[in-house]
Amino acid sequence: MICDSIIMKKSVLLILLFCTSLFTNAQNKINWLSFEDAIELNKKSPKPILIDVYTDWCGYCKKMDLETYSNKVIIDYINNNFYAIKLDGEGKEDITYKGYTFKLKGEGRSKYHELSAALMNGRLSYPTTIFMNEKEQMLQQIPGYLSTKHFEKILAFFNTKAYIDTDWPEFEKNFKSNIK
Fold first, then answer.
1. Which of 70, 102, 114, 118 is deepest in the core (most CB within 10 A)?
2. What are the structural domains of the chain?
3. CB under 8 Å, gap of 24 or more: what pairs does 133-142 form?
4. Tens-digit pLDDT profile for residues 20-70
């Protein structure tokens, strides 16, 4: 009888730990959305949009996923302040936006998705991080790998709308990081 009670308590404790672990892990990832889902959510509750344009073969894209996009401060900041989109620069899925259906073009190593090419003004460089405001207006395309500390500044620059009246060197000089 006592043994059954101990086993029951241990089982309940294990279940609670498992559930807590699942919840914690869910909070330790960026809530990546499809392009269409982010645009739809933005219509209901506007906020800035961050687009990570990547390819499967890109080494620096993978490095950014492993180092920058896995940092707790970055994860929390993006999830709380942006609609985050992961856009495969060579994705096969059609994407309809503003009345036009963007498709995969080309073959082999020369393929590209029309939407990624349009967002990057034809300069296909991976990774590229794109920021749009809550009105879906292009703010900036930033090509290349972004380290965690540098990316934190960039996120704050666009989220706080400092870009409107503060130049980057001044903003960067006065920025206080939350990354240790």
1. 102
2. 30-91+126-174 (3.40.30.10)
3. 133/48, 133/49, 134/42, 134/46, 134/47, 134/48, 134/49, 135/46, 136/39, 136/42, 136/49, 139/48, 139/163
4. 444 444 458 999 999 999 999 999 999 999 999 999 999 999 999 999 999
